[in-house]
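Subject: Protein record for review, amino acid sequence with backbone structure tokens
Why sent: The fold of this protein is of interest and is recorded here as tokens.
Enclosed: The protein record, placed directly beneath this head.
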Amino acid sequence: MALRKASREQTAGERAAPGASHDWAVELRGVHRQYGRGSSAVHALRGLDLSLPRGSFTAIMGPSGSGKSTFLQCAAGLDRPTDGTVCLGGTDITGMSENKLTELRRSRLGFVFQAFNLLPALTVKQNVLLPLRLAGRRPDGRRAAELLAQVGLADKGRRRPDELSGGQQQRVAIARALVTGPDVVFADEPTGSLDTTTAAEVLTLLRNAVDTLGATVVMVTHDPVAAAYADQVLFLAGGAVVDALPRASAAQIAARMTSLAAPSYAAATA
């Protein structure tokens, strides 16, 4: 089934970043994130530089404390960097007001979380349409039906989330993330609470969203099997990107993660 991409005009107050390329879905330039001050300060990100192309699937991995979650929060406008710039779809979001950031997240970003975060009082279809309502756009029932069919839930639109399995709820979350035709879908451990078979189904849906809809997916994961679905894997350590692998197998990714955990490697990147 051919799905329609939602069209969108740039909202008031958004501006293209100087020198930013519209070929990039996500750009971070010299991004630092520090928590606290003085000797007790924690440097979660240390001058992070990266550019992720539109229509790509990127997995972010790294040891505990490497900065994965902070990266996701800064890239998605959920947290502000201490220094540096963040651009989404060519728009510099670094200095945006909280109201403008909220508007941008509602209209131009999609989110898939480990815990699904569906509203129990709403039906499946209503959950999928919620981002359109929050963005002040007309709910498009036909688009919701198309997306639910795409994720294999064409007959579940009238159900409540608690009537679905965990895997089905995550499918709803993916449909909800795609309904606005976002610049980027950020996925935070989307398979962390799923069994192996269901996780594979969910990851295939994310892969297909990139391949058939031209979506851009950025996924934080600890699972090499999940990361193997991505076009590239970026490895973080000490708040910086220290390595990358294009379209690698789970075994290759696991081996690279093992090397990141080695004391000699950690000392070299300190």
About this structure: The two ends are 49 Å apart (CA to CA).
